[in-house]
Amino acid sequence: MLDKMAKRRWYEIGMVFCDLLNSLFIYAATLIIAIPAGAMVVVAKIMLTLMLGIGPFFIAMLMFPVTAKGLHPRLLKL
C-alpha cells in the first residue's frame, strides 16, 4: 500500500492521502488483532510452564497414603 502511495505524482496528492489513510487503517486493524493474540500466546506459555513445574509435586504427594487419601476430601469440603 505504501509502495503504491510512493509511486504517485505530486498532482495526485489527494490520492496519496487516501492511500495513507487506507494503510493506517490496515495497520491499526492488524495491531488490534495481533496484540491480544500475542498476549494470549505469552500467557499460555507461562501457564503451561507453571503447570509443568508444579505437576511433579502433586504426583509426589500421591505416593504417600496420608496425602493421597486425606487431602482430596478436605479440599472438596471447602
From TrEMBL:
The keyword Transmembrane helix applies. InterPro entries: Conjugal_tfr_TrbL/VirB6. It holds the Pfam family TrbL. GO terms for biological process: protein secretion by the type IV secretion system. Keywords: Membrane, Transmembrane, Transmembrane helix. The chain crosses the membrane at residues 20-40, 46-68. This is Inner membrane protein of type IV secretion of T-DNA complex, VirB6. It comes from plant metagenome.
